[in-house]
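Subject: for your reference before the review

Hello V.,

The reviewers asked for a structural picture of the protein, and I figured it would be easier to keep everything in one thread rather than splitting it across files. Below is the amino acid sequence we used in the manuscript, unchanged from the supplementary table.
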Amino acid sequence: MKKTNLLLLIVIVILIGVSIAIFFVRNYDPQRTLRDFAVEDTASITKIFLANKQGSAVTLERVDDHWTVNQQYTARRDFVNNLLTTIKKVEVSSPVSSAKLERVMKDLAVQGIKVEIYQGDECVKVYYVGGVTEDNNGAYMILENSDLPFIVSRPGFTGYLTVHYLPELSEWRERIAFNYSIEDIAKVYVEYPDRDESFIAERLGENSYNLRNIDGSKIEEPFDTLRVKEFVSRIKFVGFETFILDSLQAQKRDSLQTTQMLASFTIEDKTGAKNKLVTYRHPNSTGLFDPEGNLFEYDVDNLYGILGNGEVVILQYPIIDPITFYKSDFTKGMHRSTTIIKDVETP
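And here is what came back from the structure prediction:
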């Protein structure tokens, strides 16, 4: 009886083993591990590392409700969302043809961007991103420990897929000069070369605002407190176009500081901490002429800015014009000395 039970048990174990083997053989795809680039659950991704062979590298990390880059700066939300969408939707379009295989492999080895994707502390995916395909609708990619690259694309996206993986710090950093809630603002200092038009706007409480001369003294003439509130509402969020190249930062900063500024804006919060933005004219590098055929001396679209940390950035007049208030704008009736839209815009 015992021998019969033992024999039956052995037969059952063998049958189970054979069934498992058949299941894996039938479902085995020799290309799956070579082509499975996507990470479906992007909500659980906690870290993304990007690096190229030229020494550029960024580490994006999820921190509460936002992402940081290199543990120093807030990352651009739009760039991170684009990358996460690509990570989720990226799929193989086709293998690389044998005629192009050697060249693609060399390009990946020399110029490939390494991508590491983490969920928690576990690295769940590693692959390399190469250049764009001839039709600009895909990129060459290869998974780590694979010897076969693929042409990979993102459904619904047409363009240079590799730009979503750029390991350049300046591309990922948030491009914001000021970002405050209005409740956190205590004072705004605005200085111009003309001291008579400079001023301090104070937020004393909800719907309570004051205006002072830039030296802190009382303004004797009447002023419009609603305009002061409008100004503070506008300046609480100010973005910029881009950073200038790291290699030019020090030289450009030194050069700008020898010229006359356009304006200086400093926000002081309720804790006494201050953040500053100083603007300067940008040369007319595009060769733009006025309607009479005269060359504009300065760029009519862009200007330079120096942030509180000393970094030089490019701003645009449509961003700066709405916060360019002068003291006379508050004290001389409804007169405005610059073009400013009437409704307060917030991001």
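For the response letter, the relevant points are probably these. The longest helix spans residues 2-27. Residues 35-172 form one domain.

Happy to draft the paragraph if you're swamped.

O.
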